[in-house]
Design goal:
Elements lengths: L4 H4 L18 E7 L5 H9 L3 E5 L6 E8 L4 E6 L11 H12 L4 E7 L3 H14 L3 E6 L1 H6 L2 E3 L1 H8 L3 E3 L9 H11 L15 H21 L6 H10 L2 H11 L7 H16 L4 H23 E3 L6 H10 L5 H44 L4 H39 L2 H14 L6 H10 L1 H7 L6 H10 L9 H13 L5 H31 L21 H36 L1 E2 L2 E2 H15 L4 H9 L7 H9 L11 H10 L4 H12 L5 H11 L3 H28 L1
Parallel strand pairs: 1-4, 1-5, 5-6, 6-8
Antiparallel strand pairs: 2-3, 3-4, 7-9, 10-11
Helix pairs in contact: 4-12, 6-12, 8-9, 8-11, 14-15, 14-21, 15-22, 16-17, 17-18, 18-28, 19-21, 19-29, 20-21, 20-26, 20-27, 23-24, 24-25, 27-29, 28-29
Length: 719
Amino acid sequence: MGLTVNSTGKGAADKELIIRKPSQDAKVVALAGNPNVGKSTVFNGLTGLNQHTGNWPGKTVANAQGICSTSRHSYVLVDIPGTYSLMAHSAEEEVARNFICFGGADEVVVVCDATCLERNLNLVLQTIEICDQVIVCVNLLDEAKRKHIRVDLEELENRLGVPVVGAVARERRSLDSLLAVMDDVADGKGGNRTPVVISYPEEVEQAAALLMPAAADMIKSCGRKGPSAKWLALKLLEGDESLLKELEEAFGTDIMKDDATDAALKEAYALLNEKGIDRNVLKDKIVSAIVRQAEAIGKAAVQCGGRGYRGMDKKLDTILTSRRTGYPVMIALLAFVLWLTITGANYPSQLLSQGLFWIQDRLMELCVHMQVPGWITGMLIQGVYRVLAWVVSVMLPPMAIFFPLFTLLEDAGYLPRVAYNLDKPFKRCRACGKQALTMCMGFGCNAAGIVGCRIIDSPRERLIAMLTNNFVPCNGRFPTLIALITMFFIGTGGGPGATLLAALMLTAVIVLGVLMTFLVSGVLSKTMLKGVPSSFTLELPPYRRPQIGKVIVRSIFDRTLFVLGRAVVVAAPAGLVIWVLANVDAGGVSLLTHCCGFLDPFARLLGLDGVILMAFILGFPANEIVIPIIIMAYTAQGSILELDSLTQMHQLFVDNGWTWVTAVCTMLFSLMHWPCSTTLLTIRKETGGVKWMAAAFLIPTVTGMLFCFLVSRAALLVM
């Protein structure tokens, strides 16, 4: 889902692609393929941990490259974006096309899905047309066997005229044959095969032939690897502006200003006009020719067993994507994941808290022994360390459970079904159905959800997704919501029933956040971001048995520890500021108390008080520290305290004037208020300016204040 070190690390938004070869003799291999064919599994299986990421030059599309080697060669694998075509209708397709054409790859490995090979062959044929050093890796042969699909790899190789390798990428040893073929191609031992040539209608072939001499001369003059002359001639006929700009940059000259090219182009267009073919018709004829040839090759190489083919998948989809059952199943699964998270996180969180605060006591003893000044001890231990201890103990256990569970749903193929179910509601809001996927990312971290908005092609719809992502509560807001639900609506007695009821109530809060996402998206679409919703292709991948071991390891290291590390970085200075405000007096009263008193009249209008509002303000770097700040302010202590139980916390809140209305308004404000600092900085980085960052701050904040005001006023009328 994008929430990894690779997708949201420091370099993900700034670094451009630089091929880093381990040696001068290392070969560059582009790894291409449709989405959901196991391309990333192949990449991870070959490269292991020898990976680093960045962005493609001038694009917010992530790239990844890694190193692998055999006894014969070393390779730099570049994982180009998953795409269905090289026609360049999106940023991903443009990046994939440009790297294959001009990236200097020595080989291109196209990964295909054995269960739907015919559709994948469209990309294979387009790639072969661009370059001749192509290897086809037919992945997921185990799933094909389970669905009674047989792929004749030898026949496929004969038809395509390039090496074809079968694989089950989840099994590392099955990739050895791919490495062996890569070695053979690198050594020029690929055999005497002739790559397949796409047969276009006669008039298209004639028009392309007129341009091929000029295209060949241009490629030869640039002195570097480039696309085939025929492919370039066809693209010149199509008049693809993005490609023409890329050609000018790659060749160092404007190919359209070349006299020979201009003359040949005019002659070719005259020929096509005589046949009644304009540019739109030309594109249709080119696409149709590729599809027909892919169908013919697919029929010759693939045999389906008939009965049982995708039978179980279809049965599951009738339940999971049905209008009647799709939404209830989504809500039930969310509630189940939250219940497991709440139930499983309580005890580890308590143990972790005890351990970290035991370390704090030892640090205090060490400082006393070393006669460290009290103000330094207070800032570093009672301020910085204690806040960090709170964040780690509260945040780590639920993340360590939530992320693997959520990733298991992704790995099993369920999350695309969520996007399918939510596509129509988003369309009614004039937004993009892909926003459902970015919303799911927001459950773990809203900053990751913002980065995930890159998958939305339309700039208008991408902005809508960014501005509304914060209505989905991130993992940092779960502890506050769970604590308030338990203290004021469930009871602090505990037990399986209590945790189940808490999970159901938390699910209801999340559903409210999703409904607010729809509402605000619709308002934005009709006001400041008007426009017509764009269409997109959403593939429903086959259901797969999750790789539980790999999911747990990657979720812990790539997601949980990364997000925790980022929270620690922003929580440490926050702890210092909180300690200073709580310990510096003005007129015998701490600055924190002064600030809370100043905010109190306004906060009362929202059903809160000054302490709660101040806690949210100081919790700007990390939402996890809101409750600890409230406790510190109520107890008039100069540092964050840890109460022994929720019962004590509940009594403290009630003694300071809390009612069920206060709890409801605090939960609403936690759901709908400004994004954390990391999320706002990510929005600024993704949008390239302060304007939309300010909008992302104001939209949820104003909405949350309005809701809190209405709820508190309505409660006064009822009570």
